[in-house]
Design goal:
Length: about 400
């Protein structure tokens, strides 16, 4: 099995121990001299290459088992990393090359080459190698499985992204539709209010004038005068009802004096009708600001809906409406000291949904802060609606 080991040891016992060590390992092990010829090889290594040890001894190992790459292109000896172990005096470990068998086949190999030193000089190299075909096959299968998983994840992610985009587009479409319906509803209210004011209001006013004229002409006719007084009272009540309906449909003060005056009027009317103390706190920096028709209508309707809910459910004693500026942003809050509620994760009532949709249509955010027994505060934040206003 060994070729000229006299340079390695002069003792037969040491030679025998070395043979036993080499044969006891499952790895292939061989040594080469400075010319690259095999000076020893173990049985496991020779068998792995398809030879017997005696057939390998003395032969140039590079040209025997390491002459080509896996694609059968030649590997020049000066590129052989096994040889570099003794030409450069440094060990090397490789797992990306192949070794060639006697029958012309090759196998994926992992090998390590280290220099053999004698009296301070390099006299050859020792090489250990293993067939890692199964490991490479497993790595390939794992890599393919990983690539397949990655591809499926990308496909699934793309499907989910597309579904999310479709859902977002649907939500945006519904939101635009909601905003359009609000706009149409407000425009219809404006038309109805104008028609009521122009036609019914004018007719009731004319009726009151004619009834007053008739009353003055009748003089002392007591029964007729009493009847006319009742008719005038009915007409006055009808006029008040018309004004209330007109204000609910489209508050004239909103168009003529702006949002803040309209909200103050709304609070005063709410206080008078429900006996709940109301306070309006409006920062001086914004009390003369106009926000635009759509924003003012939306905020007015939000506050109107909040006050309706307070009257129906809150059992509150006081309500505070506050408007503040935060840079160019508007912060509006309506707080009551009523019974409070458990805030739903997603609002389900049409009132809360309507308030949130109106706020989102303006690019803002609506939050509900409440707990049982601790009152309720509705907060609305609208970005960049107060041009030139600083907090």
């Amino acid at each position: 099995m060994f070729a000229n080991l006299h340079n390695l040891s002069h003792h037969a016992a040491w030679r025998r121990q070395l043979e036993m060590i080499l044969e006891s390992t499952g790895e292939g092990i061989y040594g080469i001299d400075l010319t690259g010829r095999c000076i020893f090889i173990n049985e496991a290594g020779a068998s792995m290459l398809g030879y017997t040890p005696d057939e390998v001894l003395g032969r140039p190992m590079h040209y025997l088992i390491h002459h080509s790459h896996a694609d059968e292109t030649l590997m020049p000896v000066h590129d052989c990393r096994i040889y570099k172990a003794f030409t450069e005096g440094q060990g090397v470990r490789v797992d990306d090359e192949v070794l060639w068998r006697r029958d012309g086949s090759h196998f994926a190999a992992e090998y390590a080459s280290y220099p053999i030193r004698d009296h301070g000089g390099v006299v050859g190299a020792v090489v250990t190698f293993n067939d890692i075909t199964d490991r490479k096959r497993t790595e390939t299968l794992l890599r393919e499985a990983h690539d397949l998983l990655e591809r499926r994840v990308r496909e699934r992610t793309a499907d989910l992204t597309a579904a999310h985009d479709h859902l977002r587009q649907s939500n945006e479409s519904l939101r635009r539709l909601s905003a359009h319906l609000n706009s149409v509803r407000e425009e219809e209210r404006r038309h109805i209010a104008r028609d009521i004011h122009d036609d019914l209001g004018a007719a009731l006013t004319a009726l009151q004038l004619e009834t007053n004229w008739l009353k003055h002409r009748l003089g002392d006719e007591a029964n007729l005068t009493e009847r006319l007084d009742r008719m005038l009272d009915i007409g006055d009540q009808a006029m008040q009802a018309v004004r209330r309906i007109l204000n609910d449909l489209r508050p004239g003060v909103l168009d003529h004096l702006g949002l803040w005056s309209a909200l103050e009027t709304l609070l005063l009317d709410f206080q008078a009708r429900n006996g709940i103390a109301c306070r309006f706190v409006c920062a001086e920096t914004i009390e003369h600001c106009r926000l635009g028709r759509e924003a003012e209508i939306a905020l007015y309707r939000i506050v109107q809906e909040v006050l309706t809910n307070v009257a129906r459910h809150a059992r509150a004693r006081t309500v505070v409406l506050a408007a503040e500026a935060e840079g160019g942003n508007l912060y509006l809050s309506v707080a009551d000291d009523g019974c409070g509620m458990c805030v739903p994760v997603q609002p389900t009532s049409f009132g809360l949904l309507g308030m949130r949709e109106r706020t989102l249509a303006l690019g803002g955010r609506l939050d509900i802060v409440s707990a049982p027994g601790e009152g309720t505060r509705i907060e609305v934040r609208l970005p960049n609606v107060l041009v030139g206003v600083t907090s």
